[in-house]
Write a structure and sequence with these properties.
The complex is a heterodimer of chains A (214) and B (715).
Chain A: H1 3-17, H2 22-29, E1 42-46, E2 49-53, E3 59-65, E4 68-74, H3 80-87, E5 106-109, E6 112-115, E7 128-130, H4 143-150, H5 160-173, H6 179-185, H7 196-209
Chain B: H1 24-28, E1 44-50, E2 56-62, H2 64-68, E3 72-77, E4 84-85, E5 91-97, H3 100-109, E6 111-116, E7 133-135, E8 139-141, H4 144-150, E9 153-161, E10 164-165, E11 173-180, E12 183-188, H5 196-204, E13 211-213, H6 229-241, E14 247-250, H7 253-259, E15 262-263, E16 266-274, E17 280-289, E18 309-317, H8 332-349, H9 354-360, H10 369-383, H11 385-388, E19 400-408, E20 418-424, E21 430-434, H12 443-455, E22 462-466, H13 482-509, E23 516-519, E24 522-525, E25 528-534, H14 535-540, E26 547-553, E27 567-575, E28 581-591, H15 598-617, E29 648-654, H16 675-687, E30 693-694, H17 698-708
Parallel strand pairs in B: 1-14, 9-30, 12-13, 17-18, 21-22, 28-29
Antiparallel strand pairs in B: 1-5, 2-4, 2-6, 3-5, 7-18, 8-18, 9-16, 10-15, 11-12, 11-14, 16-17, 19-27, 20-21, 20-26, 23-24, 24-25, 27-28
Classes of the chains: A alpha+beta (214), B alpha+beta (715).
């Protein structure tokens, strides 16, 4: 890691400690009103050191999604969810609450289920991102996806991709959950049609078959 | 001539079985494209500036800064100076820009001055509503004064439900693009594919026939998505100003909860007169409810039980909270809660088991009395009522009290008008087209089942195409009208198509057309299955050209019906120290005539129970009278039930003899009606006191306990 990057990280840390998230700041500041669009990080000198600054205009990013490299140009304030849906046409992850309440946008980043509405795209660079589109094996559904179909764990289906991804991450960590563990472990995803009975049955079907890592 | 009826039970290969929904693989894989997911070439992103005041007049709008911003393509004033706005969140200015951040920046750069006007956003007290309260004339049936005077017991209570929203996970909105000056392509999120164009044509001043509407999937509607809405019309106007470019305008979550639908509240003071044996003789109610500028609907109380002597008065409160919309089973959950709670309270006053009181009065329910008797019996067995029910107030030690509560409900669910085209090609391939939509209820699957079963083919031999207004017109999906409509139109189309195939195949089989049947992928002679040909061979007799056959509902033969019952019993635990209510178990016993797909039918009932848990325990559109705004337009404070909140759910569908003969009847609404009443009654049974209004949040539970004069000791 070069000095520049380390300094940038320190700047980020300071911003995080300020209690006002960068996303909020950039969303409300309207900086792009007065600053021309800039491609690529700029370098500025702070306290005698060169520091890379992204944005506020669009910056090129590289994302590793479902083991494939994707490139896009987005403003630093843009979330991973918006980038997936609007820039890369990966629309399996849904925008519902857009503030980390409902789980419809769940993706797996470095093995962990996360709400992609609450991750900035620039911060998701260099990490392994799995979306619902990455679970199938060619034309074959993942055993968990098949279990969702078998147990009708979906109605309108809008929460379903997020739920499938959350269940995958859950089963990867907890291949044989008790009903109580299931209720707790999947509490981060909400469904409006009321498909939880099917989701429970689907997860248990996979747990019985031991196919959660497939 | 085909005989228009459903196949005999032993002949059904798909109908009534447990079939996985046919679009399931698309949905679990993320491949299903909802309208919100569609990205069109050159598409712009639309956003709305919304009024922050519940009631205001626009004084001035300055859009100059927004118009100058790079990337902003259209700034479109919707409600200009002088316009009076009736609720917070209403559209004032729309913009379209090259991306979402730019559109958001543009919205923030617009300056609007308002003259703030007085508002009313609360509905719990009709006296506080002043002129906004619109009392209707009182209704009297029989002689209520005499009946109350002669009653051996009189029970009084107050009951109600707060305003809730639909909270569809796919928000309202659409993508519009002008293919040329006069032709519009629309990708909406709608429960009404066939009926959208006619609602857009007049405001857009183009012929409805020039509007092409397409939607493959919809992420929830629940009664809130029958029209294009103001923002849909404005989206098309913005798109036109952008030279016809596609504009995607879907509501943000806060707007979805603020402006895209509110189930009216309902409150009632009820008095019931009864004999000592539990016979209900008199009903009196003074009710009110809100639901936006037009006021709310009037709940049909007393619900189901046609009490001989009644006096009723309802007051609609008009207020500034956004428009009311049909919410799954409009007015029924409200009427059910008020009535079933009042009956349970009457039973408690009479020291009667409420199950006995319901059965004692079951003839008051009319022609479905026997269905209710049967359903109550099954539900009571499933919850072990005899063993688990106790008189009001759980007397066991400790802070967690347990109780049972029951409710019954009804709904119509007759099939809507529906047209269906089936095209059969000489190579045997089958296409079915219908301008309907699948709300997640399994409509696509049900249509597929009906057609494939009729032709004796596997599901995947029929290609079902829905969700386009260029397909034959089929009704909006609301009020549980869809299954009756689409199952009948597709059955009739398939039977008529089969007649034509039989006519062509009969000579080759040395038989009369009437002697043929379609089964197992063949066309064969009924009494001599050895005389058969494959489906493809039979279709090749059509010659060089395919046939298209139109089926309609309504039409000949009895394929559907209306009017169902339904019974639910809830088992809850209430912590009287914290006020937290937990669902242990709910059983639902439901009839809906002939079931096409048992698997997706059960899902409807499970889903309704879960929605019911949510509106019983968590959901409320909380309005602040001071600011006129909704305090919880988000999903952390507008709460839905999670997977751990629903307890154990048991669903029993009434099928077979006595039910199948009725044909198909809608199922979406009925099971969502009873949960509020069943859960409220269970809570009253557990803690010994009525918590009057839903949602049964801890504060409401504790308040009810305090009113009784303490928690544990007095229970």
């Amino acid at each position: 890691m070069g000095d520049d990057e380390r300094n940038t990280d320190e700047e980020e840390l300071k911003e995080q400690k300020s209690g006002f998230s960068r996303r909020d700041f950039l969303k409300v500041s309207g900086i792009s009103l007065s600053v021309p669009l800039v491609i690529g990080p700029r370098t500025i000198r702070i306290a005698g050191a060169d520091v890379k600054v992204y944005g506020p205009g669009k910056v090129p990013i590289i994302l590793n999604i479902n083991s494939k490299k994707h490139t896009a140009e987005v403003e630093p304030r843009v979330t991973l969810l918006e980038t997936l849906r609007n820039e890369l046409d990966l629309t399996g992850a849904k925008r519902v609450c857009d503030r980390a309440s409902c789980g419809a946008c769940t993706v797996i980043i470095d093995g962990k289920a996360v709400y992609s509405c609450t991750v900035l795209a620039i911060e998701a660079q260099g990490k392994a991102i799995t979306t619902v589109e990455g679970l199938m094996d060619g034309d074959k559904l993942h055993p968990l996806q098949q279990a969702f179909v078998d147990n009708d764990a979906q109605q309108c289906g809008f929460c379903t991709p997020g739920f499938v991804v959350a269940c995958k991450a859950f089963l990867d960590k907890q291949p044989h959950p008790t009903p109580e563990q299931l209720n707790t472990g999947l509490a981060g995803n909400l469904c409006r049609c009321g498909t939880y009975m099917g989701v429970r049955a689907a997860v248990m079907q996979v747990a019985r078959g031991g196919q959660s890592n497939g | 001539m085909a005989e228009y009826k459903w196949p005999e039970p032993e002949k059904r290969t798909l109908i009534g079985k447990r079939i996985s929904r046919v679009d399931g693989p698309l949905k679990v894989s993320g491949k299903a494209k909802y309208s919100y997911d569609i990205n069109r070439p050159g598409m712009l992103y639309g956003k709305m500036l919304r009024c922050p005041h519940a009631h205001a007049r626009v004084v001035s709008i300055d859009t100059s800064a927004a118009e100058k911003m790079p990337g902003v393509k259209v700034v479109h004033i919707i409600q200009d100076a002088g316009k009076e706005i009736q609720w917070a969140g209403d559209d004032v200015v729309g913009v379209a820009a090259v991306d979402e951040p730019t559109a958001e920046d543009a919205i923030r750069a617009i300056k609007v001055q308002y003259e703030v006007l007085p508002h009313l956003v609360i509905d719990t007290d009709p006296k506080a509503a002043g002129d906004m309260a619109k009392p209707a004339a009182a209704t009297t049936i029989g002689d209520p004064d005499k009946a109350f005077a002669e009653a051996e017991a009189v029970s009084e209570g107050f009951y109600g439900l707060a305003v809730i929203t639909h909270c569809c996970l796919e928000p309202h909105g659409m993508i519009t693009e002008w293919e040329d000056e006069k032709n519009l392509l629309v990708h909406p999120s709608t429960q009404n594919v066939s009926g959208t164009a006619s609602q857009m044509a007049t405001p857009l001043e183009i012929p409805a026939g020039n509007i092409h509407v397409h939607q493959d999937h919809i992420g929830g509607g629940f009664g809130s998505k029958f029209g294009p809405d103001s923002w849909g019309i404005e989206c098309a106007r913005i798109s036109k100003k952008a030279g016809g470019k596609p504009v995607k305008l879907f509501l943000e979550r806060n707007a979805e909860l603020m402006v895209a639908g509110a189930r009216p509240s309902a409150y009632a003071r009820v008095k019931i007169g009864a004999k000592k044996d539990g016979t209900i003789v008199a009903w009196q109610s003074d009710s009110w409810g809100s639901g936006g500028p037009g006021g709310g609907g009037s709940p049909p109380i007393p619900y189901i039980f046609n009490i001989p002597n009644q006096r009723k008065q309802h007051t609609a409160i008009a207020n500034n909270i956004g428009s009311a919309r049909a919410w799954r089973a409009p007015n029924h959950p409200q009427a059910c809660l008020i009535t079933m709670s009042a009956l349970e309270d009457a039973a408690a006053q009479l020291n009667m088991n409420p199950l006995d009181l319901f059965l004692k009065n079951i003839e008051l329910t009319g022609p479905r009395a026997q269905i209710y008797r049967d359903e109550l019996k099954i539900a009571a067995e499933l919850i072990e009522w005899e063993k688990n029910w106790h008189p009001r107030g759980d007397k066991t030690a400790g802070p967690v009290k347990r109780g049972l509560g029951l409710s019954i409900h009804t709904w119509g669910g007759g099939g809507h008008p529906s047209d269906c085209d089936i095209t059969i090609q000489p190579d045997g391939s089958v296409e079915l087209k219908m301008g309907t939509q699948d709300l997640g209820t399994g409509t696509r699957t049900a249509i597929n089942i009906v057609a494939a079963d009729t032709f004796g083919l596997p599901l995947n031999a029929v290609k079902v195409m829905i969700g386009d207004n260029r397909f034959p017109v089929s009704g909006p999906s609301g009020g549980s009208t869809t299954i009756g409509g689409v199952s009948a139109s597709s059955r009739r189309a398939a039977l008529d198509a089969l007649d034509q195939i039989f006519a062509k195949a009969a000579p080759a089989l040395n038989a009369q057309p009437a002697d043929l049947e379609a089964a197992g992928g063949t066309i064969r002679v009924k009494n001599d299955p050895s005389r058969s040909m494959t489906w493809a061979q039979a279709c090749s007799k059509l010659g060089g050209m395919p046939i298209t056959v139109r089926g309609k509902n309504p039409g000949p033969g009895k394929l559907n019906d209306q009017g169902v019952g339904g019974c639910q019993i809830a088992d809850v635990s209430v912590d009287v120290e914290t006020g937290v209510v937990k669902i242990n178990k709910i059983v639902a016993v439901q009839d809906c005539g002939l079931i096409i797909d048992l698997k997706t039918a059960e899902s409807q009932v499970y889903g309704a129970l879960i929605m019911g848990v949510a509106y019983s325990l968590y959901e409320e559109k909380i309005m602040d009278q001071q600011t006129g705004r909704m305090l919880n337009p988000n999903m952390e404070f507008y709460k839905l039930a999670g997977i751990g909140d629903i307890g154990e759910l048991v669903v029993h569908m009434m099928t077979g003899k006595g039910y199948d003969e009725r044909g198909t009847i809608g199922l979406g609404e009925p099971p969502v009606i009873s949960p509020g009443a069943a859960i409220s009654n269970a809570v009253a049974n557990a803690i010994g006191v009525r918590v009057p209004t839903l949602p049964l949040t801890p504060d409401r539970v504790l308040e009810a306990l305090e009113r009784k004069g303490g928690s544990n000791a007095s229970i």
